[in-house]
Amino acid sequence: MTALPAPLTPDRIEALFTRDGQYLCARWGRPVAPVIFGLGDDSLDLFRSVLGAACAHARVPTTEADPEMGANLMLFFCREWDELSALPDLDRLTGQPDLPQRLQAQSADHYQIMRFESSGAIRACLSFARMSGPLGQLHPAVLAETLAMRALLSFAVEITPSPDLAALIRAAYDPVLPDAARDPSHALRLAARMAQG
């Protein structure tokens, strides 16, 4: 018999946003302008559609271009991490000159960098996926949903899509909640919003 997933209690919600003992739940404070690198044309439309649906579910507006940055959600796909070394200005973009080597040494499958507004809201997100590992075995729609959900909030851990997490993301974008929260009691407010449906 397959065990049912545990419900998202306030403690579990708090753990999703706690890194090194610090709680941070941040959401986008501006429209999302996505751009995708490294996918074939046959996959691009699917990824764009799934990204758009995920943003619509969370009530995050999307746009063709951010007035300051052009694209503010960048998704990079590669077979192996050393391919990233060929990207122009990768060091400047990420602020991490040894990123491909470090990811390869860690045998990582996904890496994400977020930039934040002075208010704490998400300003930009860079998402890197290695397709020769487990992520490459996922159905493209599942992979797109996974990366979209990971980019919508400042999760402290890697997440896998589920109805509970979709409800959590929607709750986090409730207009009465702040764009960013550092007090763990925020998890109680998220749980209350989820209970209200």
Summarize the helices and strands and which ones pair or pack.
Layout: H1 10-16, E1 18-19, E2 22-23, E3 25-26, E4 34-37, H2 41-58, E5 73-78, H3 90-94, H4 99-106, E6 110-116, E7 122-130, H5 140-152, H6 163-172, E8 180-181, H7 186-196
Helix pairs in contact: 1-7, 2-5, 6-7
Walk me through what this model shows:
37% of the residues lie in helices and 17% in strands. A hairpin with a 2-residue loop joins strand 1 and strand 2. It has 7 helices and 8 strands; from the N terminus they run H-E-E-E-E-H-E-H-H-E-E-H-H-E-H. It is of the alpha/beta class and 197 residues long. It folds into 2 domains: 69 residues, no CATH class; 122 residues, Collagenase (Catalytic Domain).
Question: Which keywords apply here?
Answer:
197 residues; alpha/beta; Collagenase (Catalytic Domain); four-stranded mixed β-sheet; two-stranded antiparallel sheet; 8 strands; 17% strand
